[in-house]
Amino acid sequence: MIALLGLVFAGQPWEATAVWSEIRENYPFSPRLPMADGAYLLAAASVVLALAISFALRKIPHLLSRIVGAGIIAGLMVSVAVGVGAARLGDDAANIDRSLAATADASTAPAGISDEAFRITLDNDDFPERGRHIEIVSTTTGFIVGTRWGVVAYHGMTGLQRWHYQRTDQGNSELYRLDHSLVSTDDGRVVVATWHRAGTIAFDSVTGEQLWSLPSSDVYHDFSPIVLPVALLPRSAPKPLLRERHASNVIAAFDPRTGRQLWVSDTTVPDCGVKQTASRSDGIYVVRVCGDRSAGIAPWLHITAIDRRTGATIAAKEIGRDPRANPGGLSFSDYRVVATSSGLVVEIRPARLVNDARVLIVSAPDHLADAQVVAVEGLRQVNAASDGGTELAITWAPQSDDYRSRHYARVPRLFSGAPASLGPPLANTGAVRDLTPMSQSPPFFLADQLVSLAKADASRAPKDARIHTWDRAGREYASIDLSYDGYWDVDDAVIIPSTGSVLVVLRDTDAGEITVIGIR
After folding, report:
1. Cβ neighbours of residue 230 under 8 Å, at least 6 residues apart?
2. CA 27 from centroid of its chain's CA atoms
3. Which of 65, 179, 350, 397 is the Cys-Cys partner for 57 at CB 3.0 to 4.6 Å?
4. What would the mean pLDDT of 265-287 be, rounded to a whole number?
5. 65 or 470: whose pLDDT is higher?
6. Cβ neighbours of 512 (radius 10 Å)
7. pLDDT computed for residue 224 by the predictor
């Protein structure tokens, strides 16, 4: 403030304007600005000075005394106004509205779905222009949507807004919320988000209360989030808050309610490079590709199970390091970790064949050492996995001498992981050629159903979508049609199971809006 006033008095007000714009755009407001404290001190000193001068005014001409008195009063008013305004700008609590937060009760994810419950329309301008994703995490009372400037909490059963934290757009501001920074943890009781240049803030998901904050310079930001797959958040995100260091094998854990670092673990394995970290409710699994094909060393997989509470290694397993243990010619550099909230399911592709992929199913971290790779004849892809991998939804291609038949005859089936057995094809497979029509939305298991999102018919018209469900006990098929009056591409739609309902997110770029449909 002193520098700004100095530029003004020096006859360079345009420079003061540029400096002020830089401060507004690139520096976060502190909870208590020095500018506000200085203004309050100035006001207090002015009051004392005014009392002293009031006695001296009796000895000067009446007109002059009025001029001096008016100047004193004006100075007092300016000081108070600057102090109040600065404190208001610097008060981060002004960004949050928790007026409805106490009205929601905790609920659970639906066991099954049948009808539409609510629709929410959001302004497309409130979300990042980069990419087409929208960040939604599940909490104990519903779900939270991450916007460009903040986070908004909704009730999972009614779709009503409960609380929000929204920073004000200052125009070309760099204080936006970072993409992919929204994380639900502590079993959905805590939500964490990070703002560019302003650091990280953790909120109580039920009340909206700010639990802790860390500046962007804190060691916390040397790590990136490790989260469960979006489709599994309702039954996920236990303690602690997990993060991994960029371009390294170091994993760190933080207390979700205090931000304090709990442990750090280096998971480096010699001769192993590319890794994928899978956070699960029962532990952390680190899957790596080892070996060097260019040096004549065939690749193999190394998997480590880590305790979430301590960071200690529970078990480790190598698959395919001995060439004699790989009679099927599996390509261990071509693998995929399937989304599941507990346990680990890894699909391993053959080196040359279209079908006959194999599956590693780990029901719990301490079962890793004894887990076996299961061969499923005709397996094309694992589409979904239940908790612990006890049941899988797969795309199965029947064996045939004709290559085209092998490639195109895809049938959705269920596969029991323990004990391993191939179930019958899913009902109404004529309407569902396979279970992966949506690149952003793989199918998932609820407690009583298998759920998949696809186009309402085989045409390419991007108008309506259909939710396919299969009862996990009786295998009965049902569908839920979703209609929308605008223009949206079903291939960009997203379906997310959340607390209280299953959410379908549609983005209409022509209308400039995002629609969230709740299904119960």
Report:
1. 136, 137, 496
2. 25
3. 65
4. 86
5. 470
6. 11
7. 82
